[in-house]
Protein 1
Amino acid sequence: MRSLSRRGVSLSEAIIACFILTFAMMITASLFHSALNHSVRIDRKQKAARVAEQQVELIRSWSRAHHGTNGDLSFVEGWSAYDGVVAESPDNPGYTVATTVEPYELFSPSKEFEKINFAAMEDENFPNDQIDPNDPSDKRKLADSAYLVTVTVSWGTRTGERLTTRTLVTDPVRDHGWDANNASKAITLEYHTGGSWGNSAPGFLAKNASLKLRAFVEDRKGEAVDNAVVTWYVDPDCTGKGTIVSLPQNPERAVFTNMVKIDQDPDVTGEELTVHTGGRVRLVARVRLGGIEAVKKTPYIQLGE
């Protein structure tokens, strides 16, 4: 019987096999190392996100405590305690937290809403030449109601070793302390007469003459309520009537004129009739505070005719 031949592995084949096995192990180790580094980077970023979130919540809690009900600061005060501060996180060594705080101006989002004449009892609209909803200077502004807080957490010197988060911190809702029976005390009126502002209302206003007014709104502790939207209207005594106007960007101010214009034909320009009614009027400022309506009326003003 013919015997079967036995053939072994040559040296070159063994070397090639070892090389392939070593190369495969190196690739596996490299992939494992890359995956481990990626996992570490993700873990550090997640930890940095938690550190940034803790810093934001710390600032929000501080604002609620000092700017909210029974707080000792107005909303625009105290931010220097965090603005420009760079420090290592006490609970997370190796993580540096940098915080900046800056005022952030808000606008009313509705263009049609900006056209509303807050002052007109007839709910008239402003003419196009009085207000431009696309012009930021004509929009109703909330200049002191929000701050932009930027928190940057870094754990190294490279660009990828930092995380930045931004958020708006708004004026906390406060209990203003007023109830329906004494809410009128929340509003203080001033009048521009004799070239300066004062708290004495004129007893008489000649025809075509104007009177400037402004309203200050305070909580029961005497602290100013910023960005309160005041609505103005005329409260006539029998025949008295006039025109009061307050632009949306300055709702706390109004101008009353002893004159009423009647448009006899809306389709024809220049056909307005000017009327002076005489009689007496009271000018009224109205604002809502936490669901409570506060109303302040001026003394009666005699209108000349």
Protein 2
Amino acid sequence: MYALAGRAAGLPVSDPVPTFTAHDGTILAYRVTGRGEPLVVLPGGPMRAGEYLGDLGGLADHRTLHILDLRGSGSSAVPADPESCRCDRQVADVESFRIHLGLGTADVLAHSAGATLALLYAIRHPSRIRSLALVTPSLRAVRAEFDPAELGEALAARPEQPWTAAAASAIASLTAGTEADWAALAPLSYGRWDDVARADEAAGKHQIPPGAGALYYAPGGLDPAATRRALGQLTAPVLVLAGELDWQPLPRLAREFAAEFPQGVFAEVPGGGHSPWLDDPAEFTRLVAAFLAMIPAPTVPPAPVPPATLPAAPVPEVR
């Protein structure tokens, strides 16, 4: 059993913080900022308070962001049953959020571990997804194991930095199966290890509830083989956006992941890390906005689309 500690997040745009009631009575909060058509946003972390996303590098100038605080995080209430924080069980929260917002179909953007929840939601409710933007997505939904060699590959792609020796030592420990200094690996999650990156890393320690990762990825919540098979049935447009310097996932793995969707599109932020809107806000916004602009207007009422079998083709890119 893990102790969650939901807290009141500073939400300067939505005041008071809007809320809705989930299927089990848990009060969930969200933040609204921006203008234009609604975009449902699922944070990473896992279960990091959504305030860290800010306005997503200016994306709020193009869309109205509805940023959900997952149960037990940010301004959302701690559920009576902590096990309801497992990622597959939070799919019902996303559906309740869509209904609360009055959306027939939804454009959904998810970051990092939030992509796991977004994928599970899209597979369970494919007719409710108009488009899906997966920003530096976790691949845990479609593969069972993490390979420490990927960290080494990401480190080798960077020029020598004051922190690279410590990071290399931590990677060697992980490869050997011994305890590693994860703090030494923090710079690898950012395109630049500067004051902005350090502030984001420090904030994350207070924005993720204790034990959240163990609850979110608790045993039984994921079936990678079944999820991978189901991706081919998702006919909505899907953007997989990588940071050039990120390791979770590496850009080459993100490109391969995009190819698994019938309408998958790949894009990459040059010099970007795991939160690419921090490294190059303008380019991040341009790529995501360009993808969203390609999405056709929804029909009313939305109708389920039968699975399509498409021939293999190169994965298109947003440029």
Protein 3
Amino acid sequence: MRIFVKSLMLPILGILFVATPTNSAEETTKQYRVENIVRKHFDIIASTQTCTYEVVDNFINGDNSKLVELFEKQRLYEDEILLMTAKEQTAGIGSNSRTWQSPPGNVYATFTFPWPENQQGLLFFVPQVSNLSVCQTVTSFGLNPQFKWINDMLLNDKKSAGVLANCKGTFPYYSRSNDQPSSTNHVALVLGIGINVNMELAVAQERFESVTDVMKMPFTSMTIESGRVFDVEAVLTELNKNLCENFSVLLRDRDFASSFLPKISPMLAYVGQEVEYSEDKEEPRKVLFRGIQNDGQIILQEGDRETTKLSGRIRPIF
């Protein structure tokens, strides 16, 4: 079923996108493939996201020196996905601009997807589809993750992964068919994902104690919750597959309600529970979390009044 979105402003992690209708058949068949991922791995780096932003911003402004230096490429094709990973980060970026000392043994990855410019309205769903991809990845290793709206994955009610999405300007991708600039305009979707794979309990506790945010959550890892040690590369490989498959479906179907909500709902955390909700750094208030509606907004109940929200944060009441 083809869904056409009326023009409106949609906030995604603090950034506004314009959703515009399109009749382009090409965009409904766009396919992201794992084999088209171009990867650069570091043993240690300040932040994969910060470094990716530098590469992307420079390239958008006509400077490909960082792309050449790090990825050994003069140009990017419209089917290529940049991936920057690190074994360790000294200033990894988290939500609310927090920075972390990120020890080895976990997934630290920043992707850059070529996103059709005339499908920017679908970017509103990217955090949730990305979070679903993380949950599916962890499920494949025998764990039972919870989907915490909008962009966190939980294990046993503790945070084990997070997603940060950002969108850059029109990116000068090339077409493989004629080796010329693509006739389809794309923006650069930059997606930072961290998964606590083998993080130790002491590190998780220290991280929780260091956070001053009133909406903070306790941390955990796949190892803490299972007692097993995991192959980080195997986790990343599964994540790559799930992201490519899910983003391809999102662009093809343009139907969050049918293609993704049925997969999210069974693992959605806090449904029917009283939670704390905060928006735009306001003081958190207690509400009843009713779930996610078909357009991706959450449903909250305050007394007898039911409201929907595009953005914000929720957490359980401790």
Protein 4
Amino acid sequence: MDWTATRAAPGRLRRPPSPSRGEGSHAATPGKVLIIACGALAREINAIIEANALSHIALTCLPAIWHNRPEKIAPAVRALIRENRERYQRILVGYAECGTHGQLDKVCAEEGVERIAGPHCYAFYSGTEAFLARGDADMDAFYLTDFIARQFDSFVIEPLGLDRHPELRDAYFGNYRRLVYLAQSEDSDLDAKARDAAKRLGLAYEKRVTGYGDLTAFVTETAPAEPIATTRTVPAE
């Protein structure tokens, strides 16, 4: 199997082959890059990899639902870095700060790897500089991305218990005025899901088409420009 082309399913951990499990080669391939990312970004990162023919990049994802348990993110990222360090020339971290209270930055600094800049994916999808420049203008906004629009019940309604106690909606969302859908794609089905989410939360609806924002540059500009040729071992006949 060509692991550089493996698609990581959102919310599911997919690892590259591990030498410790007798998989793949123990030697790093020059130019090979591993991105360790949030499962919520798997679809978008894979799209960038494929659109730019970046066959030297492999992707592995941690569960997207860990945004509800951010204390799990930094230790798991460290474990994957150490497991794969000898197999890749470079490792990148496809997480923003994501509520880890500095722990992810501490891991990145100690392990000598780079993460995408920004406090969260809403910022880097919007363009972090532009997002931060809005200041307090969006203080009343609850954000959706394509991923959250697809998984609204699993990632918003059910974790907050609103499927069981809908009367708590205003306790959670009473200080919001708008649901802002940061769209990575033009998809009428996702637009409908986002509009429905706004209605369910009692919020006004706003859509901003962001595309992939800063994520594209992070994937394409921090990796080798030329794809690296791979070799396969063919059993002797």
